[in-house]
Amino acid sequence: MREPPIVPGRLFAALRNLNVFVIVLQSLFSAGVVFGQTPLADAFADFSMASNPNGQWSYGYTLTRGSPLILFTHTSVTNPWFGCAGLGGWYENLGDAVPSALANTTSTVNRCGSITAPPGMMVLHPGPNGENGVARWTAPATGDIGIVGNFQGADNTTTDVAVLLNSSTVLFSGNINGLGDMRAFPLRVHVNAGDRIDFSVGYGSDGAYDFDSTAFEATISTLPNGQTQLADAFWDFSMASNPNGQWAYGYTLTRGSPLILFTHTSITNPWFGCAGLGGWYENLGDAVPSALANTTGAVNKCGSITAPAQMMVLHPGPNGENGVARWTAAATGDIVISGKFQGADNTTTDVAVLLNSSNGLFSGNINGLGDTRSFQLHVHVNTGDRIDFSVGYGSDGAYDFDSTAFEATISTEALPAIGSMAAAPASGYGLSGQFTFHFSDLNGAGDIARTWMMLSATQSTAQACDVTYLASTGRFYLGSDDMHSWIGGLAPGAAGTLSNSQCTLNGATSLVGLSGNNLTITLNLTFAQAFIGQKQALAYVQDTTGQHAGWTNVGQWIVGSGVEQAPSVGTLIAPAGGQGISGQFQFEFSDANGNADIMRSWMLFSRTGSTANACEVLYVASGTRLYLLSDDGGGWIGPVQPGGPPVNNSQCTLTSRVVAAQSANEITITLNLVFSSSFAGATTIFGCVQDWAGAFDPGKWKVLGNWTVQ
Q1: What is the mean pLDDT of the chain?
Q2: Residue 659: helix, strand or coil by DSSP?
Q3: How confident is the model at residue 9, as a pLDDT?
Q4: Which pLDDT belongs to residue 76?
Q5: 318 near 288, Cβ under 8 Å?
Q6: At 29, is the pLDDT very low, low, confident or very high (cuts 50, 70, 90)?
Q7: Of 7-21, 111-125, 505-519, minimum mean pLDDT range
Q8: Cα 354 vs. chain centroid, distance in angstroms?
């Protein structure tokens, strides 16, 4: 017979093999924090001809842009029109084997008839009557995502392209004109589970569908989490307008002087003409100063520039002007600014992050390709405050070859977090023990200002064992009995003790450890005899800005003397006669370590000895709750509240219950049960009990009697 779980659960795991696209994580070097994208999907790497839909992807066409998706029903391992190998996929033959969604699986450029398909990309083709070829991704969960990719002419292409949310919201649109013509998109989107992202290709303004093969690639990733992200310089970048929401792009004549907005934009690099490195600029000489973005999803080598993936590129002007990307705070609060500047050419620039044009939050110099200066800044901003990311031409006084990549995420200050508590001995019982508490902070363990760790019977800090660690002094303090004052301090590892009427803290074996984002505190505590009984372990943490995670229950401890002893199942008092359709049943359970050591107990009426299709009641000491097992034995119904409505399964109804302490070591549980007529027949009554240390009655399930339902 099994021990029924309190809360049934299942573990779901999903493994994906993304074998084409590597997402470059943004590393923050102070405090060991890494903010990065977690890959969710890749249009090419996930492509399959095995099924449609294919996991999160579907392939089909719409009669017009945004109309309902019609799934493709035909597939071919070779090109369905020209017959070439390595360019197969899904299609519908509305004319000339289009519309279609194909993939170049050859790992090289695939020249197939008039098509020139780039490696590692899908190829969409519109239909002959205005149909749009579509690849659709469906979000498996709610969250913020980044979509980076591009459409690219793969023939003498004249198409209109778009990325749509739920068929109606246009996230991106553009036109492709000719072989190799590219339109790149970095998009940042909030999606709900089930939302649809469509990558759509129509036949363009010429109204002709022939020679309209359009390559595309797209990776979809979660955006950084932990903190609430407010902005991201790359993902928020847009060539649609300037200012662009909270961002503005321009230049200052000197560092900190008024910002002059850029007035020109180009989808290709404004000097070298390369695709995927466009943006805003002013032509004060050689199309600089400028604020560009590498939207190709990979390293973009453009003339002398080597632009890292998923980063912006700032360039100073010829007369000492600073290239600037500016973010304006929408609300008052504490923020974290994390990112880096990086040489993208034979760069010699001076870089800075400024608050309101005057307060230098960060500054440094970049010297050479790949030279990097990272920053993590904690700043209080008021609504309307301005953060400038600024690049000047450096001490050499020359602006040529000064392209400087940069990335920046702006987030609210993260709340510190409370982890688990581990106790030794593991029995969870005794007059002394070592208690290890875990805390963390995404801004680094050094951002944790103070922690509180308490063992209490009532969750009150009075008459409790309440220890605080204050980082500024590096000392422990113990709360007085009435919690009107603190006793101490005592340095971790130092000789000495702190005592109140509930406990004593031993300094020599009480330790503090910091590692990256994690703070670990071990307390060596001895309890007073007067403090005997079940205690809850609770924790509280506060960071340097005053943000906190409130009191959290992290474990249990039984304060008691002697050795840990297993609980036992006692007697059953049942109605006389041993039969009936209803009855009142009183179960007894005991524990030599005290009744507070009883964690849970089970009471079972079964015709077969199985818990399935039986009448089984679970008692949980925490909260004094009772539950009834479902028919299949897979879940618990309840809890049953005093005076509340009854609960039932197909075998019985639990109408009421009483839990009472008969002595310091015993509890009784009285159940009022009404049995179903379908449960008629002889049943065996079992009892089982477990303590907080995990020990059971030596017999585990104990037969207490019999009852005939009739």
Answers
A1: 89
A2: strand
A3: 22
A4: 95
A5: yes
A6: very low
A7: 7-21
A8: 30
Question: Among 411, 353, 13, 422, which Cα is nearest to 227's?
Answer: 411
Fold of 39-222: Jelly Rolls (2.60.120)
- pLDDT for 224 equals 52
Helices and strands (H, E) in the chain, number of each type: 0, 58
Distances (CA, A) of 527 to 506, 642, 694: 11, 35, 22
- For tokens 């632009």, name the residue: 307
Residue 300: the pLDDT is 94
Rounded to whole angstroms, the Cα distance separating 97 from 122 reads 16
Coil/strand/helix, residue 204: coil
For residue 31, give Cα distances in angstroms to 36, 71, 251, 514: 15, 49, 32, 11
Instruction: Name 340's Cβ contacts closer than 8 Å, sequence gap at least 6.
Output: 26, 372, 373, 374, 375, 406, 407
Q: Provide the CATH number for the domain formed by 417-559 in this structure.
A: 2.60.40.10
In the chain, the N- to C-terminal Cα span, in Å, equals 25
Residue 230 near residue 365 (C-beta atoms within 8 A): no
Q: Can you give the residue ranges of every domain in the chain?
A: 39-222, 229-412, 417-559, 568-709
Topology alike, domains 229-412 and 417-559: no
For the stretch 629-671, pLDDT in tens is 999 888 899 888 766 789 999 999 998 878 877 788 899 999 9
Q: What pairs with residue 238 in β-bridges?
A: none
In angstroms, rounded to a whole number, what is the distance separating the alpha carbons of residues 612 and 631?
6
- Name the CATH topology of 229-412: Jelly Rolls (2.60.120)
520-556 confidence digits (pLDDT tens)? 999 999 999 889 888 889 999 999 878 888 899 898 8
Which band of pLDDT confidence, cut at 50, 70 and 90, is reported for residue 16? Answer: very low
How far apart CA 155 and CA 181 sit, in angstroms, is 10
- Selection from 306, 258, 260 nearest residue 280 by Cα: 260
pLDDT digits (tens, 9 = 90+) for 34-54: 234 567 899 999 999 999 999
Residue with the bigger pLDDT between 609 and 385: it is 385
The residue type found at 5 is: P
Phi-psi region of 662 (alpha: psi -120 to 50; beta: other; left: phi over 0): alpha
- Using DSSP's 3-state secondary structure scheme, residue 45 falls into coil
Q: How far from 254 is each of 68, 314, 317, 358, 393, CA to CA, in Å? A: 54, 15, 10, 12, 11
Decide if 73 contacts 113 (C-beta within 8 A).
no
Dump strand ranges (E) for 544-651.
548-559, 568-573, 582-590, 598-606, 615-620, 625-629, 636-637, 647-648
For the domain spanning 568-709, the CATH number is 2.60.40
Beta strands in 480-532, from DSSP E residues, in sequence order: 486-490, 497-499, 503-506, 511-515, 518-527
The 3-class secondary structure across 253-314, one letter per residue, is CCCCCCCEECCEEEEECCCCCCEEEEEEECCCCCCCCEEEEECCCCCEEECCEEECCCCEEE
* Strands (E) located in 368-482: 372-381, 386-392, 404-412, 417-424, 429-430, 432-440, 448-456, 465-470, 475-479
Q: What tokens appear for 12 in the block? A: 């779901």
- Residue pair 600/694 in contact by the 8 Å Cβ criterion: no
pLDDT band at 586 (very low <50, low <70, confident <90, very high): very high
Question: Cβ distance 152 to 216 under 8 Å?
Answer: yes
Q: What is the pLDDT of residue 404?
A: 98
Length of the chain: 710
Q: In a 3-state reduction of DSSP, which class is residue 520?
A: strand
